[in-house]
Predict the 3D structure of the following.
Amino acid sequence: MARVVVGLSGGVDSSVAAQLLIEQGHEVIALFMRNWHDETVTIHDECPWIEDSNDAMLVAEKLGIPFQVIDLSTEYKERIVDYMFAEYKAGRTPNPDVLCNREIKFDVFLDRAMALGADYVATGHYCRREETMVNGEKVYQLKAGKDPNKDQSYFLCQLNQEQLAKALFPIGHLQKSEVREIASKLDLVTADKKDSQGLCFIGKVRLPDFLQQQLAPKKGKVIEIPIETEIPRDLNRLPEQNDFSVKAAPYTFVEDMGSVKGEHNGAHYFTIGQRKGLGIGGTPEPLFVIATDTKENVIYTGQGDSHPGLRKEALFVSSDDVHWLRTDLALKAGESAVYTARIRYRQPLFKVQLHATEHGLYVLFIEAQKAVTPGQFVAWYQEDELIGSGVIQF
């Protein structure tokens, strides 16, 4: 029997995770993480933390396990919120959920759990931890959840072997419907509760309101680039030039390539691939954001999701941002490998070629992908196992 601290969020998934751990004979302690205090930017009906905390407490009471609330808001602000502001200001789009798992749940929270004498921490993620032997040493594997519609391995793509060694994912082998059925049979208050949405531990927010805390609104132009425009690449940003690096080179946009379609309140409020929020109509096909320039405060758009400015054949991850969960499979400079990958949550996996150089990793797509967004994460897989990930630079 092990002592397991479960992160009880007030949702159905972590509730059932706790119950399954009890059934397995573990000593289970429940902790609720309060990571955010400023409710002025939260859409209150979507994710009120007080309700979540109360639901978590009721579940713990029903299951007969110890429960307490811990405040990690200082660490969350420093590691997640400040990082988000800096990334948006620089014109990149961060993924707070991936960071929250790496920096909060499996770092700060893990440390708190270990201080309580825990052997493991557990969460309600839809993924699986397995083990294999490599050269006589135990290696931990992160595999996709059995429910293809709920697989959350992508959100855990930045975990390392040490973190995975201490992690348990009790519901990873279940379908969402089975999880709800277990909760219903136990008459848990969370059984029919809607899944939470929005930023990790903050809830659903009005992003412009959230960002305006530090990034002031500033009027700028919305430029439409005609679909037939030949868009040049910025080869100067490449650390080296070869056949695959040129495919990854970022596009270069200038105002005189298109026409002004309207105004926006700040380029840093928008992200590549975004369609809603522009407030501009009257075009045969919807306008999509194909690039943002936060220095000049200009948004570039194109009609339709097949616009060439929205599609790329490759991406680049700098060496500092390449992360191998399976360190035994890490590529050395000059090596390449074929995997499948995704660049956003729930995206179907697609075939890629990885090429490692001394400067970083080039990820070449067999078929062009749309909305490749700097600041987001690319994660690569071998069948259903997550092998590594990296922050997209361009």
User: Anything to note?
Assistant: Helices lie at 12-23, 49-63, 73-89, 96-115, 161-165, 176-185, 207-211, 243-248. The chain has a mean pLDDT of 92.
